[in-house]
Specification:
Length: 329
């Protein structure tokens, strides 16, 4: 394959951007790679929080495990759409072999700005609804990746499993995130069968979270979707759950490690690895994004935090603790 020099340009888009790069060497054009080739990859992560961090690290790990040399340009938009757009525009002009976008707003920015190189996404709930692909089965362009559509119905059932008399569940989500609206709609649908009422509030950024939680009033439980603004400030949800003695159900393991009581969710490290395997098919095997359907994760894990549950005024049934893949001590 044709090898070319990699020059990773780094532009200043304000002190709010965190930029890091590691590894390096010669970069290869996408397709038909072989042993000894190296690549230049840009990563645009919307915001720093455990789930997205794990997805990015899982993506990088897939290359390490395959023994493939990569020069990384990893940038974080710090939750600001304007920064995600600036990063995408930079990557469009850079000499990169592939771009990874982590979370829906980052993926939308990348898909709009980058048309002449492969773009993969991860931690995107509904790629079709977000306008990233023609369809999940046939993406149709230069963009594809992995969905983190979580089992909302199963997660909401955990409210009843832990707190059978629960009647109200509060959800705060970002008005500007399509993936969050999808999850809230699924929660409302599941709530009908569970005989619970969903109380909702929206925010524009994480700074509005505390006020939005207060606006919900008294609820028996809170549910945290994979919403980037909410998850980046999940400690606010934890504090509210403890203060109001309301069960806090998360949507992924990182939230339980941060103080939610329980979840049955996706392993984001494995989701990132799965996305990395797709990238290797593009870079080394010559596959086109248009040919690779959007993939979902089948790796769900039950994670419980008995100590957090106690602080929220509930006790996780022994059956669930025994069944758990991970118990946070």
């Amino acid at each position: 394959m044709r090898l070319r020099k990699v020059a990773t340009a780094m532009v200043a888009v304000g002190s709010i951007l965190a930029v890091s790069a590691c590894g390096g060497g010669e970069g290869g054009g996408g397709g038909g790679g072989g042993e000894g080739d190296s690549y230049s990859i840009g990563v645009s992560q919307l915001v720093q929080h455990p789930a997205l961090d794990a997805a990015t690290e899982g993506f990088k790990k897939s290359f390490e495990d395959a023994g493939v040399d990569v020069e990384w340009d990893v940038q974080n938009a710090q939750g600001e759409q304007a920064n995600a757009t600036s990063i995408a525009q930079q990557f469009a002009n850079d000499d990169l072999d592939l771009v990874l976008a982590v979370a829906t707003p980052a993926a939308q920015a990348a898909a709009q700005a980058i048309t002449d190189k492969p773009v993969l996404f991860t931690a995107v709930t509904d790629a079709e609804e977000a306008g990233l692909v023609d369809s999940n089965d046939k993406p149709g362009g230069n963009v594809t990746g992995t969905s983190d559509l979580n089992p909302v119905e199963e997660q909401l059932k955990l409210v009843k499993d832990v707190k059978p008399d629960a009647k109200t569940v509060g959800i705060v989500y970002s008005s500007g995130e399509v993936n969050s609206q999808v999850q809230v709609d699924l929660a409302k649908k599941a709530a009908k069968d569970l005989d619970v009422t969903i109380k909702e509030a929206t925010i524009a950024n994480s700074g509005e979270l505390a006020q939005a939680v207060d606006s919900l009033g008294k609820v028996d439980a809170y549910y945290v979707p994979t919403d980037n603004n909410v998850v980046s400030a999940v400690s606010t949800m934890v504090q509210a759950a403890e203060k109001n003695k309301a069960l806090l159900v998360g949507s992924e393991a990182g939230q339980v490690e941060s103080g939610a009581a329980i979840t049955r969710g996706i392993d984001y490290t494995k989701l990132g690895e799965q996305t990395g395997e797709m990238a290797l098919k593009i870079l080394q095997d010559g596959k086109k994004p248009a040919e690779l359907p959007v993939e979902t994760s089948s790796n769900l894990e039950l994670v419980v935090n008995p100590k957090a549950a106690k602080a929220q005024g509930v006790e996780i049934p022994k059956k669930l603790v025994d069944e758990a893949d991970k118990v946070i001590e």
